[in-house]
Amino acid sequence: MTAWLLPENVEDVLPPQAWRMEDMRRALLDLFRGEGYQLVIPPLMEFVDSLLTGVGADLDLKTFKLVDQLSGRLMGVRADTTPQVARIDAHLLAANAVNRLCYAGSVLHTQSDGFHRSREPIQIGAELYGDASAQADLEILTLMQKGLDACGVRAAQLDIGHVGVYRALAQEAGLSGEIEHQLFGALQAKDASAVAVLTAGLPAALADAFAALPQLYGDRAVLAEARVRLPALPAVVAALDTLEAVDTGLAGVNAAYDLAELRGYGYHSGVVFAAYTAGRSSAIAQGGRYDEVGKVFGRARPATGFSLDLRELAVAGA
Question: pTM to 2 decimals?
Answer without folding.
Answer: 0.93
